[in-house]
């Protein structure tokens, strides 16, 4: 079966994304990705010039999918920014179920790629920045006195939920995230 270059690129990225997430980026070689995708390493390198390019595409895809999922949850919650914030955490609770969660893809990427000059590192930081900025937008819509402070607090809960789910499971400390978010939101009263 012949594929277009775009189809081959998507196939390689699909396989690489699965392997990178479940087995680790550095632990997954290009030869393994090519074999599982049913392409030669030369074909893989035509789609992605280097493994670093493939990793950057994996991070970009993960970021795009997450942002779309969280934006959809916010939109479904309606115009109330408080409901939007809670919807983001409800979506996160779905994402950290053990059958689909090994850990935060961006945090795992940052652990494996600490060099700030690498596109994968920059993409992972960008994803984390987006979450904080999204919380900032919603906090601003709430009309609280210090939306940046609320955004930071929500980001800390977000990251804590991700990391404790990875270490202790979704039924451990992450099960308290929504209650903690509700308490934080109750503490930050609108200034208007």
From TrEMBL:
What Pfam families does the annotation carry? TetR_N (PF00440)
Q: Which residues bind DNA?
A: 29-48
- Database matches in InterPro entries: Homeodomain-like_sf, HTH_TetR, Tet_transcr_reg_TetR-rel_C_sf
Q: What Gene3D superfamilies does the annotation carry?
A: Tetracycline Repressor, domain 2
Q: Which domain of life is it from?
A: Bacteria
- Tell me which UniProt keywords the record has, alphabetically: DNA-binding, Transcription, Transcription regulation
Which ranges carry the HTH tetR-type domain?
A: 6-66
For this entry, the protein name equals TetR/AcrR family transcriptional regulator
